[in-house]
Design goal:
It is a single chain. The protein is built from 17 helices and twelve strands. The protein has helices at residues 16-21, 43-62, 68-78, 96-105, 111-117, 129-137, 174-182, 199-202, 206-218, 223-228, 259-274, 288-300, 317-328, 359-370, 383-392, 395-406, 411-419, and strands at 6-10, 28-34, 124-126, 144-147, 168-171, 190-192, 246-251, 278-285, 309-313, 333-336, 351-353, 374-376. A six-stranded parallel β-sheet has the order 2-1-3-4-5-6, with helices on both faces. A six-stranded parallel β-sheet has the order 9-8-7-10-11-12, sandwiched between helices. It is globular, with a radius of gyration of 22 Å.
């Protein structure tokens, strides 16, 4: 079967679509191909996507402006909203958002890419629903898989005519399956696989080894272990000693939003960092302006030579993902808005949840809370008070165990087996 190779298609928009694709790169014939920036893309296509991305980034950054910013963002979010789940009902009618995308597809959006991939019709796996639309519309000859990047999805993720579609969905959870059924997708075309977590975090039993150390760091007074020690599998029994500092990682989203929260966290936790009681990772991603913002804060605090503060930045996204994944192996708490990173709870990471940006992130937050892996952030202005309390009373350790037990961490293997049954 072509040596178990695929075509892997994402979109260079924020981090979500490419982060979901990253663990599958080893299977891809040509690495990650981006629908909005592929080799040979037509000039008008490129301009269309640039305009779309600039509008989204501007509105996301504008959201924090009182009243007007929130109003503008809500208007945009209305067109990509996720309807209430209950009561269960038929949600298959086409939406305005879908019709807009199909209007552009009929003009030729993605046609050149699909025609090129059709020269060798390997399984096509995409993390972006528009690419799945394109593949089906332009009659891609191989199987088409759409990997879902959130815990719940809008109607836009399902095909225009789901009853006749051949797109196969790789769903991260049961809720996505149920939602796609409401949109009219055939049950035979929905496979629950879980979200693909990076191999460098799960291979060689790294997940369990890292979690054992993490539980020790999160439970300095043994409050958690006193209650739950008898329920911990042997492979999760925390080591007697760990020399690692309590480590917090704050991640800024792909649009660069919420970097000011990271700045405030740094300022408020600075005494603990100086006292060698806490290690802080600030994740700037591939955003140079966010990296510059964090670096200025560190310099202004005369902390550039301190070993307990680190900024993770790289201009190339794939290298950023690699550095970030390595950073997570030594992370005790991940603080982020509930983006696709919500699924990284499957690494046994407790998530402190910043304010959601958009309907899909509201759903991701609800999912994190429902499985006990997430905790809503309190006011960052007082993080130096409430975060140590959360650590002392064992709730962060409890969230870490809930995350490990209730969030899937086998998505990568399941997806490989779904595409290649003999893998």
């Amino acid at each position: 079967m072509n040596n178990n190779k695929i075509h892997l298609v994402a979109a260079d928009m924020g981090y979500g679509h490419q982060r979901a694709a990253y663990p599958l790169v080893e299977l891809s014939r040509e690495g990650i191909v981006n629908l909005n920036d592929y080799e040979g893309i037509e000039k008008w296509e490129k301009q269309y996507w640039l305009k779309t991305q600039k509008s989204y980034d501007k509105i996301s950054s504008f959201k924090h402006i009182p009243i007007l910013g929130n109003l503008v963002f809500k208007t945009m979010d209305f067109f990509q909203r996720i309807e209430p789940f209950y009561p269960r009902r038929d949600l298959s009618p086409q939406t305005f958002q879908q019709k807009i995308f199909f209007k552009v597809i009929k003009k030729g959006l993605g046609q050149k890419l699909i025609d090129n991939l059709n020269k060798e019709p390997l399984p096509l796996v995409t993390t972006f629903f528009v690419a799945a639309y394109c593949a089906e519309y332009y009659k891609y000859q191989g199987p088409i898989y759409c990997l879902v990047c959130d815990t719940d999805v809008s109607r836009a993720w399902a095909p225009l005519n789901p009853q006749t579609s051949k797109i196969i969905y790789l769903a991260p959870n049961q809720r996505v399956r149920q939602r796609l059924l409401m949109y009219g997708v055939s049950p035979a075309n929905i496979k629950i696989t879980g979200f693909p977590l990076p191999a460098e975090n799960i291979e060689n039993n790294f997940l369990e080894k890292d979690l054992a150390i993490r539980l020790n760091c999160l439970d300095p007074l043994k409050k958690f272990q006193e209650v739950y020690h008898q329920f911990l599998p042997d492979k999760l029994s925390p080591p007697a000693m760990s020399n690692r500092l309590f480590t917090v990682t704050f991640a800024v989203g792909g649009a660069g939003a919420q970097k000011e929260i990271g700045g405030l966290i740094f300022k408020k936790l600075l005494p603990l960092i100086k006292e060698n009681k806490l290690f802080l990772n600030l994740i700037a991603g591939n955003r140079a302006e966010v990296n510059d913002y964090f670096q200025r804060l560190i310099r202004s605090s005369q902390m550039e030579n301190n070993q307990n503060i680190q900024v993770i930045y790289h201009p190339q996204k794939m290298e950023y993902f690699r550095l970030f994944n390595l950073c997570l192996r030594n992370t005790d708490v991940l603080w982020t808005k509930p983006s696709e990173l919500s699924f990284y709870a499957g690494l046994g990471l407790p998530i402190i949840i910043s304010d959601p940006v958009g309907s899909q992130e509201v759903c991701n937050r609800d999912w994190l809370l429902s499985i006990g892996a997430g905790l809503d952030s309190l006011d960052p202005e007082f993080v130096d008070e409430w975060l140590p309390d959360w650590r002392r009373d064992g709730r962060l350790a409890r969230a870490a165990l809930n995350a490990y037990l209730n969030a899937s961490h086998n998505g990568l293997v399941n997806i490989k087996k779904e595409i290649f049954p003999n893998f």
